[in-house]
Structure prediction request, 611 residues.
Amino acid sequence: MKSLQSLFLVTCLLATIPAEAGWELLNVEVNDGNQLIDISMPTERDACAVGAFKSPSSGNSEPRIMCTSDGGQTWYKASLEGFLNIPVAVSMVDAELGFLTSMSLPDPKIYRTENGGRSWSEQTLPQGVSGMLSDIFFLDENRGWAVGGSSALYTEDGGTTWQTGTVSGLGEERALNGVFFVDASHGWVVGGVPMEEGDEWTDPVPPHDGIIMSSEDGGHSWQAVSDGYAGSLQRIWFANSQHGWAVGGGEAGLILHTGNGGAAWDEQTVPSGQHGAADFVTDVVFTDVQTGYAVGNIGEGTPMVLMTEDGGGTWSIDDTYQQAFEGLSGLEAFAKYAMLSGVSFPMQGRGMICGAHMVVVGFSGQGFCQDADADGHEDESCGGDDCDDSNPYVNPSAEEICNGLDENCDGVADETFDLTRDPNNCGECGFNCQPAQVCWDSECVLECPEELTRCGQECVDPTSDPDHCGGCDNKCDFPNAEAECLDSECYMGDCLAGFVDLDGNPENGCEYECTPDGEEVCDQIDNDCDGQTDEGLPDCQAEDDGGPSDGGTNDGGEDGADMRQYDPEGGGCSCVSSGGEARGVGLLLLILGFIPGVRRKRLKRPGRRLS
Prediction:
């Protein structure tokens, strides 16, 4: 038992240690038939990678889906039914929702997960889709696209129904390989002629004749915008609507960049290392318009991780990638030569790469601050505000619980509990008084002191307790205002931030939603919250806005689109009075809560008595 407890303690401690900057090997299974093809990382902790592994028993390729929710420290695996049903592309919308495509006989398939990749359900595709859907991309939970061969599919309802887009100008030999959308309408696909295997009489033909296509109608139709590249294009990524990158290769690696929304594409230089430059760049991702990562390969034996900090003006080889494989021996040592196929970065300084031999390598940058327990608060050891990043129930947003711990990280434990009066925590957390008892001076007793009244399991002073004012359970309550109990009578106290008591009637509390922001100015807003707008400003006058007459003062404004303008000669502003339903726009904005609230000064005591 002690050994198990020690193991658990070590595991917890390791989970709380901030990851050092650089690359870390997260998974490896050396076998010539093992290949992770794609990876998608929606958050700093969650990721799914897909591909195939060679079964030790049958020698056949079998599907591999592996997902993590702890940054790659542990992985859980899922599979797909059917013969040679191999997943080839994955797109995770968030930690739970995701989609993948698979190469299946006789037709390709698309699957959906709603539990972070633990299980997948097949979706219905249109008739006539064949070959392989090589990429899938989801913009949000509803809108997604999948491409492969000559097919470009789209869905607008989360995959419940898929439809086929019209692809013009692709040609018979070229295939679509990658897809990306910057919004619901504008997207791009890339492709080219795939590699042609040689035989004893002919040499293989590298991928070639790359093409870039665009859509402006959500994938309903596609048109070529640039083609004829020496290599085939594999993947495409946009940092915003203007800046995008497409990668691929053939006899030489390709990185293309556009800075004008895809109207023109310029080739960027692929750097050379000890063994030369990559002849194929398989994937690319940018966290902003300057910072990007790409993965490539030289032949079948040398992987290459590329990075840029100037939008691709200069790409460099990240030699620190190989440090992730230090210490490996035997067959596993060959993992550092594994061909790389996918890269995903959900934020700057945090990402993962996948490839052959089931390699997954994670990256944590110098500026990355981890949230190990996924509670939305980063570890205070690297600049965050989480005082215990191994416990998701401890962070500045957590509710304090009576247990001796400081759940809300304010430096004080159990500060919201009165152990001298709380019948559920009398004297100590978790000590409950019997129903017939009350808690007084940290002890469970049968009777309250003579000067107090017992209400349930509480001892209260009905002359001053707003929850039992004048008698048990007689709660003082005023809408949008604080309540006070004085001499067994309820009085309205301060208005809550963003509310004002205009009518002086405590029964409706602070009924006017308004935030005072200074003296009245000509802006059609009740700045001083007195119930009037622009009062006492003689130069703030109505002017004709030129619209059709609507019965308003001095102007038309059929739809209430009157404007107020500053009048420098008059020393103020000219105000166009809104007519009809548009009158009182300032008050409407206040009611809708567009104006942030500040606290009003305290009212004089004893305030107004509720009769």
DSSP finds two helices and 41 strands in the chain.
